[in-house]
Amino acid sequence: MTFTEAKERVETLAAELKQHNYNYYVLAQPTISDQDFDYKLKELAALEKQYPGLLDPNSPTQKVGGEITKEFQTVKHQWPMLSLGNTYNEQDLLDFDQRIQKAIGSNFEYVVELKFDGLSISLSYEDGKLVRGVTRGDGTKGDEVTNNIKTIHAIPHHLKPGNYPAEFEIRGEVFMHKKAFERLNQERLDNGEVTYANPRNFASGTVKLQDSAEVAKRPLDCFLYFFYAHKNQFKTHWESLQTVKTWGFPVCEHTALCSNIQEVLIFIKTWETERFKLSYDIDGIVLKVNSFEQQEELGFTAKSPRWAISYKYKAASAETILESVGYQVGRTGAVTPVAHLKPVLLAGTTVKRATLHNANEIARLDLYEGDTVFVEKGGEIIPKITGVNLDKRTPDLKPVEYASNCPRCGTELVRKEGEAAYYCPNDEGCPPQIVGKIQHFIGRKAMNIDGLGDETIENFYKRGFLHHISDLYELHQHIDELRTLERFGEKSITNMVRGIERSKEMPFEKVLFGLGIRFVGETVARKLARYFKTIEALQHASFTDLILVDEIGDRIAESLIEYFTVPQHLEQIEKLKKAGLQFAIKEEVNELQSEKLAGKSFIISGVFEKFSREELKQKIEQNGGKILGSISAKLDYLVAGENMGPAKLEKAQKLNIPIISEQELVGMIEG
Ligand code: AMP
Ligand code: ZN
């Protein structure tokens, strides 16, 4: 396509999309399906990316676009979700205490709580049942994320018996434990996916995902700390916390009742160091006036309550020497720099290393080898360098020069346009890449070959038994040599052989993930496998074919196309096919059980009581029915659960499409 042709196409698409937006939002009479709309939007985005000069700030990809693809409904909060006044020093707290005394006298108590570093959420319950979960949003209105919230185990869907009001709201913080964060982030790094800077970002990114199944895979937790009802049965905040606990709500045990500000200060001092022992991040302490009546008397400013304030801890920081910069090479060839530090005590642990993320970070910090640097421990377990003490830089020091060659194999590093990381392109000859790829392939989430461990792979590689994934299926040729290895007895061999044999039954999506294609994590592999069904179809898919798949963006599409152009990769796939691995999805999962829904089409929307959406879809397909992508006159039934989007409902009603419940659907199949 020439530039002029591209320009014309961009203009046509932009004009069409604007018209469709108008039809959809203003006239409520869309003339194309949602899917076709998204197709056009993606085509426009791809062109704008290819020709940045054609990007108009008013393009539908830039503005309403976000709103359109966004499926969350906006909900107005019954009580605004305010922020808290905050302070970093004791004097401010004493002043706060004085202001309160002036307003209500000295007869009051404080409740002190930890300030959890996550995202705030408001939950609504009706007759003891969770009906809605909404993010803070702009404080007045938030995103309705009920389906995602329902995947959090700590949040009860049904309350235990208790004297709760028929309707109430409860608010708190959703967060991710540090260990889970480290594990999931490492997985993302290994898969070449974008990582999150801290557990809070990970948690808030997760709650806003469109795919609840993906949310369910990322362990989130929650603590609740505000109770709201039109007729509040409690006299104090403390009493409300104690009681909601008995209804089944998670309330943090590290909460205290203080009779004056001095006691509050002691609590703050204790947690200044104790906080590092917690499994989750806190960034301070919150104090709240206990009595609801006194809270009411004190009232609010425009932004925050006058009866509460937060005290934020300063990040733990220390000064030490940057001795050198080292590099790690991952299985995809991505190079990560690591700072080697002179050991220093920081927040109770000795710190020797700090993350440097990438070359940009080193340049931003303007690091010299031998510099005295400030290290901080924030949310992350691994500390980071936040700056240089320039007063201590001596004239003999030289700037850190980023490695130009791979520290493991010597190959010149490359950097792709628009990416921060450098890569070692020698995937056929770079030891950590060779070993890493095979380790990834046998891993729990891929082929799950127990009987083979990371160390064994390393050992086999060194001895020349393994170089490619496909060599695993040739290991039997070396059995006699294997028998002579130390700590590798008959039993280990039997286990290994059995594990390798079993891997041939692993479904296509696992094999695809196991290949270790950059940016193709578990979820992406599953989506691709289900969509294309065979490796051949995937291999021959064009860029446009690829980006049509849900959640497949430009980066993943490019990476896939590149992967399939490498002859060695194709050779590997051929060998693995010969070995008997699964390179197509088995249709039996969806084997037809009846023809009861033959010729009928369905859309499923909302949350259901008995089955997940996926299960319902499967049931429909197993009984001959079809699932459609969007509501149109062709649709036969809309299966509606709770919290279905009002736009969908309205559209279905307009078109006179029968709306059925989960039970009715099951009835159609069983009846
Ligand atoms: P800030 O974002 O600094 O204005 O602080 C206010 C936010 O702190 C609230 O929106 C909550 O998300 C969060 N927070 C964390 N822990 C608590 C707690 N125990 N009580 C009240 N708010 C909390
Ligand atoms: Zn290398």
TrEMBL record:
Keyword terms, alphabetized: DNA damage, DNA repair, DNA replication, Ligase, Magnesium, Manganese, Metal-binding, NAD, Zinc
Active site as annotated: K115 (n6-amp-lysine intermediate)
BP terms from Gene Ontology: DNA repair; DNA replication
Domain BRCT: 592-671
Enzyme Commission number(s) from the entry: 6.5.1.2
InterPro entries linked: BRCT_dom, BRCT_dom_sf, DisA/LigA_HHH, DNA_ligase, DNA_ligase_AS, DNA_ligase_CS, DNAligase_adenylation, DNAligase_N
Catalytic activity field: NAD(+) + (deoxyribonucleotide)n-3'-hydroxyl + 5'-phospho-(deoxyribonucleotide)m = (deoxyribonucleotide)n+m + AMP + beta-nicotinamide D-nucleotide
Keyword DNA-binding: no
GO cellular component: cytosol
Required cofactor(s): Mg(2+); Mn(2+)
Binding site for Zn(2+): C406, C409, C424, C430
GO molecular function: DNA binding; DNA ligase (NAD+) activity; metal ion binding
Keyword Protease carried by entry: no
Residue sites binding NAD(+) per the record: D34, Q35, D36, F37, D38, S83, L84, E113, R136, E173, K288, K312
Class of enzymatic activity (EC top level): ligase
HAMAP family, per the entry: DNA_ligase_A (MF_01588)
Similarity annotation: Belongs to the NAD-dependent DNA ligase family. LigA subfamily.
Function field: DNA ligase that catalyzes the formation of phosphodiester linkages between 5'-phosphoryl and 3'-hydroxyl groups in double-stranded DNA using NAD as a coenzyme and as the energy source for the reaction. It is essential for DNA replication and repair of damaged DNA.
Protein name: DNA ligase
Organism: Mucilaginibacter arboris
